[in-house]
Amino acid sequence: MKLDFIDVDHLSIAAANMRGKGKDPDVSDLLPSVRARGVLVPLLVRPNCSEGRFEIVAGRRRFTAVNAVAREGGAVKPIPCAILDEGDDADALEASMLENLARVRPDEVSQWEAFVALVKAGRSVDGVADTFGFEPNAVKRILALGNLLPRIRTLYRDGQVNVATVRHLTLASKSQQKAWLALFDDEAAYCPTGHQLKAWLFGGSAIAVTHALFEIDMFKGGIVTDLFGEDRFFADSDAFWSAQMEAIEARKAEYLEAGWSDVIVMDRGQWFRSWDHAHAGKRKGGRIYVEVRDSGEVTFHEGYVTTKEAKRLSGGGSGEGDAVAEKPSRPEVSGPLNAYIDLHRHAAVRADLASHGGVALRAMLAHVIAGADLWRVDIESQRAPKEEIAESVETCSAETAFDIKRRAVLAVLGFNEEIPTVTGRPLHRPPFAPLFARLLELPDPVVLEIVAIVMGETLAAGSEAVEMIGLHLGTDMRQHWQADAAFFDQLRDREVLLAITGEVAGAEVAAANAGEKAKALKAIIADCLAGENGRAKTEPWVPQWMAFPPTTYTPRGGVGSVMAAARVRYELAAAAVPYPAEDRDAAECEERPMAA
User: Fold this and answer.
1) So where are the chain's domains?
2) With a threshold of 0.70, does the pTM exceed it?
3) What is the pLDDT at residue 498?
4) Are strands 54-58 and 11-13 parallel, antiparallel or unpaired?
5) Which backbone phi and psi does 354 adopt, to 5 degrees?
6) Number of H helices, E strands in the chain
7) Which of 174, 275, 395, 407 has its CA 20 to 30 A from that of 446?
8) pLDDT digits over 324-352, tens only?
């Protein structure tokens, strides 16, 4: 490599330049410096096939800035350049990538194009990873984009397809990708995205490799891996079930040989009802019940008989694992005396508890999580009427932030961090005693964080509680939400669209487009929110129904959030309690200095 000064007209952008495609980059930040002092940092170039000409491998923005100065009529001097050795495409591409990565990380599709070129030029995956400071798996993940049709990669690069959708599309065959693109282009058709796409690809049930009871190396069917190389699924469900049932039969034979009376393989999808069975050892005729889920997961329930059989067996045996213990002798206290004891102990404990709020808070929290005794608290299911709405909520920034804190709470309590909620669900509730003992060990600030997560999980959507808490906290929806495709898909009322157009684009624009159809009004709103197609970008915006407090756009009403706010306002007025938003506004006015 050597340094030299080269005339501008002897330079051109190389095909190996990572950012060499597309329109000229924005160089407004470079122009003042280039006008005043020229190019200070050498461009990276290599000889072109034409004598005396060179290709720019790295430095396209500086080159573009020099040309802009020339078009303005400014003086342009030869540009300092570092000249690579001739003929090494891999070195040139590597140099371009290193410079661009150091300045700003390009999108994954650009990385894929560059990594593929490097691999074709002879670089290994490990070599590429070492050069650019990536993990080898990250390079493999980016290279996996090669499984996608070019148009899908373009949609991903342009932000029209999210990461979750791309991840699942890498599991699809080329014909499935073409079928998905046809759905994507058809406005009248349902196009599965995100987690819904996996079910579409696998006919409703994607079976993970982790559920196999057999040796994966011996499996003759196809296995597909997602973009991230983390999840593997069976491509042929029939082949999976054939191998899985053979493995179950082999395990059944092993149980029978070990002395168990019977092994019952339940129908696929049938649940094992533990409450209809009792534990019993081998000598008491205990069986093995094999529960087979549609997901491919298999559970072996060892040592059970039905409750009817347990009653019949209750008269004999005392060995380990018997179905029922010997007939109990007469208790030393009567039923009424038991009630007397329980009620007096209850009265004494709650009298002491009345002076220990911290203990009471922990007991209350354990009751809610465990659903113990008199407590039955339901979890907000967040059910949505349409899949695109469900995906919009699942992927929003607010849900992500809540989930991060929820996982931290699960870890603190010693729960599995992959379970969906801290609050217990029917048939999946933790026992009260160890949970309460753990909460007693935790300091108040940590307990309050757990309270906040449990409250969030059990807060009913659309309720007065959401309205009141949001008002008290001054929740600003602009920090948590922005308009997405799911929002625009459900927004169809022209009168409302026209009112929103006036909000984001101004009254004059709304008046000028009063006769336009809903589709055109949506486009105007979207352009204003994004600052595209020549329209000035609007400040962060939320529709009036989503604000705290909410309002309507028309006299027609019928908006759930507005009706909940009205109920809150009425109830507070009846109790002579200030409405939170008005109380806060008044306080701000008192604190704000008056204008001179």
Assistant:
1) 2-106, 148-201, 248-313, 339-447, 477-591
2) no
3) 93
4) parallel
5) -60, -20
6) 25, 11
7) 395
8) 444 445 677 777 777 778 788 778 877 88
* Strands, sheet with 287-292, edge to edge from the N-terminal-most edge strand: 263-265, 287-292, 298-306, 277-279
Spatial distance between the Cα atoms of 369 and 519, rounded to a whole number of angstroms: 47
Residue 116 near residue 61 (C-beta atoms within 8 A) = no
Q: For tokens 């001739």, name the residue.
A: 86
* Cβ-based burial of 16 (10 A; exposed 0-12, middle 13-18, buried ≥19): buried
DSSP 298-344: EEEEEEEEEHHHHHHHTTS--STT-SSPPPPPPPSS-HHHHHHHHHH
Three-class secondary structure assignment of 114-178: HHHHHHHCCCCHHHHHHHHCCCHHHHHHHHHHHHCCHHHHHHHHCCCCCHHHHHHHCCCCHHHHH
Helix, strand, or coil here: 429? Answer: coil
Token pair for residue 391?
């995906």
Backbone angles phi, psi at 81, to 5 degrees: -140, 145
Question: Which residue ranges of the chain lie beneath pLDDT 70?
Answer: 1, 15-23, 49-50, 86-110, 112-114, 128-138, 141, 144, 146-147, 195, 198-199, 202-206, 224-231, 313-330, 426-427, 581-596
| The pLDDT of residue 390 | 83
Q: How many CB atoms lie within 10 A of CB 179?
A: 14
Calculate the CA dihedral of residues 69, 70, 75, 77 and round it to 10 degrees.
100
Helix axes 444-457, 397-412, angle to 10 degrees: 130
Q: Do 565 and 462 contact (CB within 8 A), yes or no? A: no
Question: What is the fold, at CATH topology level, of the domain defined by 2-106?
Answer: 3.90.1530
Q: Cα separation of 130 and 532, whole Å? A: 39
Q: Which among 217, 396, 408, 212 is positioned nearest to 293, based on CA atoms?
A: 212
Q: Which helix (H) or strand (E) holds 58?
A: strand 54-58
Cis omega before residue 80 (within 30°)? Answer: no
Q: What is the DSSP code string of 442-454? A: S-HHHHHHHHHHH
The interaxial angle of helices 150-157 and 108-120, nearest 10 deg, is 140
Per-residue DSSP letter, 207: P
Token digits for 537? 């970008």
Q: Which residues are within 8 A (CB) of 256 and not within 5 positions of it... i.e. 6 or more apart?
A: 262, 263
Site of tokens 């299911």: 381
